[in-house]
């Protein structure tokens, strides 16, 4: 029994990736199990937990803003910084008077015990010479930190973290320093978690990690397990109707892997395939471990074995030294691919990375102009992709109600993650139950990003 945190009101805010979302859900469960009460972030709380992100300098700034906002909401509250910003901004975290407690990535599962100990000895733990911050272990280990969801955070789907860390060391990225090297989760532990969630009504799982395609590469000899092996086992779990993959690297899409994945009937034909640039010279400066041709071949493999798969990606514009010719090469490449969706990011120098010290940094204006070009392109491609499914029967996993232009709609997603809306008063609306899958036939668009049933 953790006596010191019983009844504490805890507000939580998450920044960053799907892995962070999963870890935040687990932390919330740990605190509830220990007797805390989770309250909305805008409510006055005794403890504020900020699950931070450090992928860019902007993410660092947002993390600091949320930490400072928390202390402003209630100066008497304990403000807890957790995660990646703690790992990479250690010196600043120690001196930040708004932060009472800082917890590294590898201690998130122990948040309830750490808080209980903090409150037990609060007067002694805080060293005011370090700006009032008590820092809990931020050193990475070579072992996977076990975390497990015991309750469904949503009615419909659950993110399942199966891997942590990255060995790639792209020149613009600090994640290997924030998350450590590749560590994979025991397959049986993953399967047990999904079985438990399935028994509680979960229909869809999203398999995620920091570099999820590397799953199993760190297992000892005699354990020949990779990500496809795991997916095949997940398909056998009763009640799970959809398996969705998080972001994967193009080199993971070999002929063997593509064909094996196509045989997994529950696997959604929706793949987020990291690109970053469609120009080989830029990819080389980024230290990405593939060429544009190899990326194109991976997409072709997926389109050969899956029916109209939704291919999404990330692209960075304005990388140091990116010439007009290099950007045009990238633009032509992504136009030829024809992505369902493309997330476009303007390069932001990240302190501590190789790219931040590269010559020929572009101006904000140059980055914005190039970003606008690709955003216009992806908006057109996205509408075309959605329109191709008008008049066809689609399976939709229903989620929540939403009001669009004053009218209520039930919102859901297809297996390709195309958003659909059933209007109030329609037969489809009446049959749409959150967490359930029904077959519908869209007749148009209610918004550029949403099919109308």
Key terms:
453 residues; alpha/beta; Rossmann fold; pyruvate-formate lyase- activating enzyme; 6-stranded parallel beta sheet; 6-stranded mixed beta sheet; 15 helices; 22% strand; globular
Coarse structural class: alpha/beta
Q: Which spans have pLDDT < 50 for at least 5 consecutive residues?
A: 123-131
Described by strand count, sense and barrel closure, the largest sheet is:
6 strands, parallel
| CATH class descriptor name of the largest domain | Alpha Beta
Mean pLDDT: 93
CATH topology of the largest domain: pyruvate-formate lyase- activating enzyme
| Number of structurally distinct domains | 3
Number of strands: 19
Number of helices: 15
Lay out the secondary structure.
Layout: E1 9-14, H1 18-33, E2 37-39, E3 47-52, H2 57-73, E4 78-83, H3 84-88, H4 90-95, E5 101-103, H5 111-120, H6 122-125, E6 134-136, E7 157-164, H7 175-179, E8 183-184, H8 187-199, E9 204-209, H9 227-235, E10 242-245, H10 255-262, E11 270-272, H11 280-286, H12 292-305, E12 310-317, H13 324-337, E13 341-346, H14 364-387, E14 394-404, E15 407-414, E16 419-423, H15 427-431, E17 437-440, E18 444-447, E19 450-452
Parallel strand pairs: 1-2, 1-3, 3-4, 4-5, 5-6, 7-9, 9-10, 11-12, 12-13, 16-19
Antiparallel strand pairs: 7-8, 14-15, 14-17, 15-16, 18-19
